[in-house]
Structure formats: C-alpha cells, structure tokens
Write a structure and sequence with these properties.
With 94 residues, this protein is mainly alpha-helical. It has one domain (7-82). The chain has helices at residues 7-10, 14-24, 31-51, 56-82. The radius of gyration is 16 Å and the shape is elongated.
C-alpha cells in the first residue's frame, strides 16, 4: 500500500496532488475505481452519441462523457507513472 506519508506522494507537486484528489474525490485513490469510472464513461458516452442522431443534446452529453473517460485514462496513466495508488500493484480486490 502507498500511504500519503510515502516519499512518492510527498515528492509530487501541489498541483498534481490536487489533480488526483479532485478527480477521485478521495484521499486514497484506487486503480479499480479509476478503471470502473473509465469503462462506465465510455459506455454511456458511446450510447449518448448514438442517441445523438435523434437529439442534439444527447450528442453533447455523449461527447462530455467520452472526454471524462479519456481524462480518467490519462489520470490512471499518471497515477501509474508516479506510483500513488493506495493498493499494491497486482492487488486484486475480488
């Protein structure tokens, strides 16, 4: 487990700590949560884009959801790069 007192977390710049906190709204970010948000955002984004053939508002919502999915993909990549996940690598909660 990576604690907030660890060297990895302490060495991050303030803006990056805020980036992780506000995107996860948690002090202990977990990889499973990020992946779940990414998958749900992709699925709903594609569904709303298909509904966009009927309603222009649905298309706008779909694009927003797809942007959210790609934001969480980027966030997961950065969390892997800086090693700030709360659980240990290879941890399987199931």
């Amino acid at each position: 487990m990576i604690e907030k007192d660890s060297a990895n977390w302490q060495n991050l710049p303030l803006w990056l700590k805020c980036w992780f906190f506000f995107n996860f709204l948690a002090l202990r970010p977990r990889r499973a949560v990020a992946k779940r948000i990414e998958v749900i955002s992709h699925l709903t984004g594609f569904a709303f884009c298909l509904f966009g053939f009927v309603s222009e508002a649905a298309l706008a919502g779909g694009l927003i959801m797809l942007a959210t999915a790609y934001l969480f993909c980027l966030l997961g990549w950065q969390a892997d790069k800086y090693g700030i996940w709360y659980e240990a690598p290879g941890f399987d909660p199931a």
